[in-house]
Write a structure and sequence with these properties.
This protein is mostly helical. The protein contains six helices and no strands. The chain is rod-shaped and about 115 Å long. It is 84% helix and 0% strand. Helix 1 runs antiparallel to helix 2 and helix 1 runs parallel beside helix 3.
Length: 183
């Protein structure tokens, strides 16, 4: 009788445990499905936050049946890894592009400075260089103030070095430059 009770209770315990693991498997399969839907997203910030939330939910869900554990984990991990690798690649491309933009803007500043030093500037050259400078995209965040300051100083020296201009004309060109910069 004691053995019967023990084995009966044991069977009940393991049935309940198996049922919980089946429920957990279904929950984890749902998380895999959501991760697979998100893995190709290009909304980097929102999707990365959603995937991080899914990863936390994954940890909170209990164990699954042993025979499905590796398979379901691999599917989930592959989906998350795919997205984060794409995001990393995109971020690297953006950094390279911004570094190239910084180099181009520095070249324009160098042109402005050389014209100012050689006193070979004109308002047409200034407009042309200004249009080039403004057409170039973003630079790395850490370099924004540096390049902006260098550019404004170079423009000021350039304007002051243009031969044959009165102070009023120089002031007008400087004001026009500031308005274009704000625009």
């Amino acid at each position: 009788s004691a053995f019967k009770t023990f084995f009966n209770n044991k069977n009940g315990f393991f049935k309940k445990l198996d049922e919980e693991r089946e429920v957990n498997l279904q929950l984890k399969n749902d998380l895999v499905k959501k991760a697979l839907e998100l893995k190709e997203s290009m909304d980097w910030e929102r999707t990365s936050n959603e995937l991080k939330t899914l990863q936390q939910k994954w940890k909170d869900v209990g164990p699954v049946p042993e025979k499905f554990r590796e398979k379901v984990f691999k599917e989930f991990k592959d989906a998350c890894d795919h997205f984060f690798e794409q995001r990393r690649t995109q971020h690297d491309k953006m950094e390279q592009e911004q570094s190239e933009n910084m180099r181009l803007k520095e070249e324009i500043c160098t042109d402005l400075e050389s014209h100012a030093a050689g006193r070979t500037g004109s308002s047409d050259i200034l407009r042309e260089l200004q249009e080039k400078f403004n057409a170039i995209g973003f630079v790395p965040r850490k370099d924004i103030n540096t390049i902006r300051t260098r550019y404004h100083e170079a423009v000021d020296r350039f304007i002051n070095s243009i031969p044959g201009l009165s102070e009023d004309e120089k002031g007008k060109i400087a004001l026009e430059n500031q308005l274009n910069d704000l625009r």
